Sequence to fold (183 residues):
Amino acid sequence: MRQTLSNLPVLVALVVMAGVPVAVLAQDDVEITTLAREDHLLVSLELPGAYSDDVRAAVASGLETTFSFDVELRRAVAYWPDETVDRASISTSVSLDGLTGRYRVVRMVNGAVVDVRVVEEEGAARELLTTMERLPLFSTRDLETNGDYGVRVRMDRRPRTSWFRWPWDRAAALGRASFTFLP
Fold:
């Protein structure tokens, strides 16, 4: 009986640690819509729950908050991992100017600035940060007609606002959409 009680603190610690990942691993989903038009695959992304109270507090404090998206176009391969056809990176940053009360939103695609907006309302800044409509990310020239493809998105947020840090890299949100390419 004495040995069982001496292991009790270890058992309690394991139970507590097992409960932590459940809360930490709760992820927001990235909603993905694809549309083939002319020579481009247009990708729309939406993160309905990403603008949380923690993000709102970070933006209100004046910290520049960035949502970074790694987008992969993948070809489905039977009995093998999907083949990556192309990759793109999207970064959307928002910062609040404390003197004017205006939000500055910058969107970059593959390292190039594609949009800069200054808005006065937090709702407009939230919409620009969490919603992207019909971005021409990939060329359709090399896609096979009637081929099965998928778009996989991995989103990360800076600054990280959670109190717990994993020793390995972890996405803040993930998403996946499949489609058949019909020109």
